[in-house]
Amino acid sequence: MARTRRPLIAGNWKMNGLRADGLALAKGVADGVKQAGWSDRDVLVCPPATLVLAVAEAVKGSGVLVGGENCHAKANGAHTGEIAAEMLHDCGATYVIVGHSERRADCGETDAIVRAKAEAAWRAGLVPIVCIGETLAEREAGKTLSVLETQLKGSVPAGSTAANLVVAYEPVWAIGTGKTPTTPEVAAAHAHIRKVLGGLTGEAAQFRLLYGGSVKGSNAAELLAAGDVDGALVGGASLKADEFLAIAKAA
Ligand SMILES: O=C(CO)COP(=O)(O)O
Questions:
Q1: Domains defined along the chain, listed by start
Q2: Where is the active site (predicted)?
Q3: What is the ipTM of this complex?
Q4: Of 170, 190, 192, 243, which is the active-site residue?
Q5: Contact, 191 vs 227, CB < 8 A?
Q6: The whole model's pTM is what?
């Protein structure tokens, strides 16, 4: 299929992976990507912070990109346990996920905090992947599109372009549940996201919009073919090299 936007398949490993497993997974992905020789899509792995440096070294030369799962808004300072975007960049990352719903829920991250983190990513030379998505209660109340719009307006900084920012639509109720929206529902959400981004930035057509939430090898082709979907943000299925590669192949 002719695409105007370069697909991005991103794996979010979440809080999974000790060194041996993480390195084996990274090598498996790197070998598969090298063998496939893709020049028409990006494959990104986002390991826990403890593995960013080792994974970046393990995938060097394969074309696989590396990202962080989160960053702090500040470049340094008295923030015990936090990780600056500059530190991720220093370890070989080129992307960072910000505003994942697990962090919004677990750590109370607001749209304003997410926006500050996206700006921090730019400061460090990283591309932020800004996550948005409705809860089941919001979907059932018919509020999906308005929730996405509010999150976008609050989380996407001024100065965002298709080259410096990616948006991931992850319905909270689809994460880790095996449930997914229907293809028309995904397409409707992505069309709305693109429209809102157009209003915010004036250049919506080229933005890469990822779908995330229970993406697997078996449903990737269908989800990736939905209108305005330019890739996937994959959780559980990114922990198996073969399955993650199958998803990347479907892009
Ligand atoms: O949260 C996700 C990716 O960021 C999706 O997780 P699952 O693919 O495990 O549903």
A1: 8-12+22-30+41-250 (3.20.20.70)
A2: 100 (electrophile), 170 (proton acceptor)
A3: 0.99
A4: 170
A5: yes
A6: 0.98
